[in-house]
Amino acid sequence: MMAGFRYFVVLADMRTGSNLLETQLNALSGVACHAELFNPQFIGQPGVFDLAGVTLADRMRDPFALLAAVQPGGALSDGVLAGFRLFHDHDPRMRAHVLADPACAKIVLTRNPLESHVSLKIAEATDQWKM
What we know:
single chain; alpha/beta; 4-stranded parallel sheet; two-stranded antiparallel ribbon; 34% helix
């Protein structure tokens, strides 16, 4: 684990390449990225409503229990540097927390807005959201 960081967050948005980055991070030994843990519709992946003993309703009441799961000793850490992706429309309590937390490594992922828009339109037209 990297000295000084207990977990990481990928600050991104739709169509910025966050799925690709997550795949690459998960290919690294000693790193685990757990997708969109704080998406308002699900936990991690579409259709998942319970993870590490935390339900969606639990997380909505108190997101910090799920955050503890990615930190050392947590159910999702498994001895690796663990983290998640966080988008602009995810839990604002978590965004404020990770931005202020010096123990959280921040990865900021951006993309040209026009390219993101074109990518979104292609995904909508083809129903292919992940490559």
